[in-house]
Structure formats: C-alpha cells, structure tokens
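Lab notes, practical 5.
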Amino acid sequence: MKKIDLVMLSKLGVSDGGRETWLNNFLNYINKSDVNVKFNLITLETSSNNILENENSHLVNKHYKYNHTLKKIPISLGFIFFCLYNFLFKKKESNDVLAVGGLNEAIATLFSYSLRGVSGNKILWLRTIYTKEKGYRLNSFTQNLILKIEIFLIKNFFDIIIANGDDTANFYRDLGVECAVIKNSINLKKWNNQVNYNNSEILKVAFIGRLSEVKGIQSFLDVIDLIEQNKNINNIDFHIIGEGPYLSKLGKYRDKPLVHLYGAIPNNELPTLLQQMDVCVALTYLTNFLGGGGVSNALVEQMAAGKIIICWDNDIFRQVLDDESAYFIKQGDSLALAECLIEIKNNRELANKKAKRAEILSQQYSIENHVKSFFELVGLK
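Output from the prediction step:
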C-alpha cells in the first residue's frame, strides 16, 4: 500500500472553497476505485462540517491538526511552525509527500521534510499563483522578492510540480520551473443531472465564489447598481452565493428586491440551487500583479450544469472556454457586463446555444481522468 502525507493549509470545510471541493472529489473517487493508497493529513483544526465526514474518511491513516490560538501571528506562520516542530525530526512513514496549494504549503513541507524526508517523491500541486492571489496586499518590491524565494524553493526542493491549469503552468515555466498540468475536475454526473435551459421571464444571474476584490465581486455590485438605475430594465435578479472580505460591504444590497444573498452554501447543496439560475459570472482578475490561477472548479461545475457563462476576457477563462461557449467581456468593464445581460435577456436562443457548447466542453474535466493522471505521474497505476 502506498502512503502519502498531504499538507494543506485548510480547515477542510465543505463550503470553504475550490481546494476543499477538489480534495473531496479526489478522495471520494479514490474511495470507489481500486487504488491502494492511504493518506496522512496535515491540516488546520477541521471545521465541524468537513469533507471527512463523508465515506472517504477511512482513506485517512492519521490526521495531524493545527489549532491556531496564537492570535498575534498569522495563521499561515503558525501552521508552518506547527509542521516544523512536529515533523522535522520525525521518521516519515509515507512514500511521498504532497503539498497542495501554494507558497505556504511549500514552505511548511520544506521545513518538515528537509532533514528526514520521504522515500519517494516530494510533490507540489500548485492550485494558485501565490504572488498574484495576494497581489492586492503587496507592493511590487515585496511581490518580486517573494516570487524569487518561491521559485528558488520550488526548483531546488520538490521532485514533481503539478499545475492545475495551463495559465499557472505557463507562468511558472516562464520562470524556469518544469511542471506537469493536471486540470481541475468534477463529478460530472452530479452536475449534468441539473441541466435546465429555461426561458423564464426573469433572468437569474449568479455570482458564486469568494467575495473578494480579485474574484470580481465589486464589478458584480457595480453591475447591480447600473441595472437598478436604468428604469427601462426589469426582470433581472442577482444572486450572491459565498462569503469573504466583501461580506461586510453588502449591507446596502440586503434590502434591494433584485438582490438575493445566500452566504456560504455547502458544495453538495449547490447543484439544486444552481439549477434555478440562468447565468453565472466568472470575474477573477488577471494582471501582471493580480489574479488567481488554474482551471476553476466552480466554473467547470457551472458549465456542466448548462449555465450561460459570462467571464472576463483573460487567460484564466480562455484556457477553458471559447467564443462559441461563453460571453467574454473586457476585464473590469462593468458597463459592458451589464449590456451583455441585456443582450442575453433579448436573445435567449443564442445564449442557450453557448451554454450547451459549454456543457459539452465540461466533459473533458472528469474526476476519473484527473485521478488517473495523478497516480500515473507519481508511479501508482
């Protein structure tokens, strides 16, 4: 039996985000397959409603949890120290170690496995471009310094580097990092069963994800304001699903009849809710200093569910969709986004054709192919 230590700065909550959704899909599929593997998890103290409450919990051999009580230091730094203290001198039982995420997990793994490592591979699965994800907090000098440290660490410590999208891979390849690409995946059956091309009078538009600047929530709010101000436009409703830094800024929108706020919704409840929506927006920014990375789990879910997709015209979304399957809007142009909604409302036939094309494109992102690609890469078929 192969054992893998999995390092991830997460509480593993069922509605925490893309990484947690990915890990849940990953473990659930392994549970139903004939892959002979067990995991030792190294994470934060888990949420009360976490992904390990499902049938995949028996795949976990041991679970080391960091309970963050040192409020004067960042949780990421506390997690790194936890890993250093508990694992630096510990004899490793596992064949491989897999760090999932970005720079925080990479540093934690470096500190934990530099003296007494695993017998097999040290693997980093990049699920973001760290310096771009945190770009809005960093000045250019700090961002460049962190990037140089990250590249040095990745190139000199890890044996296998995986990116979860072509955009992420190309970013690191341009900096001299060799990496494979295993794009995000979903349980297609779960979402295909929710396909519903309705033509109801009210156009329901959903923002699903973390409520943060980089994810485009401010642009979405700007669109709401533009539509509300135009008295000639009606029958467009806006649905905001998620939580994050902008949650406290949604106060004035709570009482607007065209706005519906849901907070965080567990992923297993999303298919039913998504079936009620017509349009989903994907507004993650990408610039030289800002943006996420990789193929979005949420985007592929929305495609598989047959939703009409509107997204910024950048490499994050161009690697997944094309002009026949989505509406592309110049990044940051809220007015053009509002005009696109009116266009969709007036021509639902064309919009539904794009949605059907997106549904077809989603079929390549099956969890079966995803898990198979990973275990072929690490030598377990």
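Observations recorded by the TA: The first strand starts at residue 2 and ends at 7. The mean pLDDT is 89.
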